[in-house]
TrEMBL record:
Bilayer-crossing regions: none
Gene: gatA
An example molecular function term from Gene Ontology annotations: ATP binding
Gene Ontology terms: biological process: translation
Protein name stated in the entry: Glutamyl-tRNA(Gln) amidotransferase subunit A
GO cellular component entries: glutamyl-tRNA(Gln) amidotransferase complex
């Protein structure tokens, strides 16, 4: 597939041809299930002209359906554009197709989508990761030039790693969340999933920046990173040794080999441990579910999507929510309501906030000594369907990605190797807050080393 960098140079005739080709390719690869609806030529006539970008189904495009892949939002049409969509359009890009995801972005495999599963293009018996599994599979299968995803605890980085593309989560507050269906508001961040690092930088530059419509968006000067990309910057890289040692053998071996290559390229490597792995799963699943229970209380059959029939108002709420939400979403709302309830608030929620501060401090301390942190993205390569047998094993698999969201830091995943079955292994690079330039420079550097450039 043509890169975003090249696609931006096409004229409108060439773009029309490209969109038609894409539609044909999407039809031909239907079994992958990356998009939740089949695109037709009439779709593109009605959609905007511009370089087509695939959009996760929790980002609003005016007058398009948006469901967060939940039954409860069936039939709901977005009343306005998310800020990131307005920014795409202002740069002559255009939303093109809604991609599959775990329901309300809760998951790591895209299996909890109301629309059914997405296959990993590298191996159809395996998951594409999640929750932005549709976006990553679309890019990896060559049926999207680039895509937008959202990352609350790894949902951009992990599916990109499972499918073999690049996934970038900017610093919390760097990209507006206005028009993103909220999962956990203090963790959610929109970002690019692309074929390569340079494309990630290009798409990031387009969507980043202060937005007065999002009160958590950072009112900071923003300078684009793409014009200053420097693949030759020499870096001090802190390798998280205990995380690498705990990962599966193929991941461990691939990362150790990558570290050797980085050393040979003249980078300064030091080794650190992160003690916070003891706390980060618990802290994340308390904070994320608490915020989700509040955010998802708005879906009650009155204003949004599906409404179940009932004799009384109370019964209507209960029926709508009981029928509309899937099992995992219900589990998390119950968990979140529990940890916020009186008597448990201090024991769980407040404690999790304290753990969050500790986790952030640990990252910040390492990043005051090093330019970048290197660690795995997930303990293993892409799972087989159904391999994560219960919710706890799924939660535990998020061990390497969620700390970054709790600390609000920018992080990218870059493919570094394939295992013996051709499944992708990526490295995760994490930078200090607002240092997207350093993260993307480091990522470009790593990508060049891996590709032997
Ligand atoms: N797997 C994590 C969860 O289920 C992260 C999901 C995400 O980043 N949206 O919450």
């Amino acid at each position: 597939m043509i890169s975003l960098k090249e696609a931006i140079k096409l004229n409108s005739n060439e773009l029309n041809t490209l969109r038609k080709e894409l539609i044909e390719k999407i039809k031909a690869t239907k079994e992958i299930g990356a998009y939740i609806e089949q695109l037709t030529n009439s779709d593109i006539d009605e959609s905007f002209a511009g370089v087509p970008i695939a959009i996760k189904d929790n980002i609003q495009v005016k007058n398009w359906s948006i469901t967060s892949c939940s039954k409860i939002l069936q039939g709901y049409k977005a009343p306005y554009n998310a800020t990131v969509i307005n920014k795409l359009i202002a740069s002559s890009l255009a939303p093109f197709g809604r991609t599959n995801m775990d329901e309300f972005a809760m998951g790591s495999t895209t299996e909890s989508s109301y629309y059914g599963k997405t296959l990993n293009p590298l191996d159809h018996t395996r998951v594409p990761g999640g929750s932005s599994g549709g976006s990553a599979a679309a890019v990896a299968a060559g049926i999207a030039i680039a895509a937008l995803g959202s990352d609350t605890g790894g949902s951009i980085r992990q599916p990109a790693a499972f499918c073999g593309c690049v996934g970038f989560k900017p610093t919390y507050g760097r990209v507006s969340r206005y028009g993103l269906a909220a999962y956990s508001s203090s963790l959610d961040q929109i970002g690019p999933i692309t074929q390569n690092v340079e494309d990630a930088a290009i798409l990031y530059d387009i969507i980043a920046g202060y937005d007065k419509l999002d009160s958590t968006s950072a009112n900071l000067d923003f300078s684009p990173v793409t014009p200053n990309l420097n693949p030759n910057r020499k870096l001090k890289i802190a390798v998280i040794k205990n995380y690498i040692d705990e990962a599966s053998k193929p991941v461990r071996d691939a990362l150790n080999l990558t570290i050797e290559k980085l050393k040979n390229a003249g980078h300064d490597i030091c080794y650190k441990d992160l003690a916070n792995s003891k706390y980060n799963i618990a802290a994340y699943y308390i904070i994320a579910t608490a915020e989700a229970s509040a955010n998802l209380s708005r879906y009650d059959g009155v204003r949004y999507g599906n409404r179940a029939s009932a004799d009384t108002l109370g019964q209507m709420y209960a029926n709508t929510r009981g029928e509309g939400f899937g099992v995992e979403v219900q589990r998390r709302m119950l968990l979140g309501t529990f940890v916020l309830s009186s008597g448990y608030y201090d024991a769980y929620y407040i404690k999790a906030q304290k753990a969050r501060a500790f986790i952030k401090r640990e990252y910040d301390e390492i990043l005051s000594e090093a330019d970048i942190i290197l660690m795995p993205v997930a303990p293993s390569v892409a799972y087989k369907f159904g391999e994560l047998k219960n919710p706890l094993s799924a939660y535990l698999s998020d061990i390497y990605t969620i700390g970054v969201n709790l600390a609000g830091l920018p992080a990218i995943t870059v493919p570094v190797a394939s295992d013996e079955n051709g499944l992708n292994i990526s490295a995760q690079l994490i930078g200090a807050a607002w240092q997207e330039q350093v993260v993307l420079d480091a990522a470009l550097n790593l990508e060049n080393i891996v590709k032997g450039n």
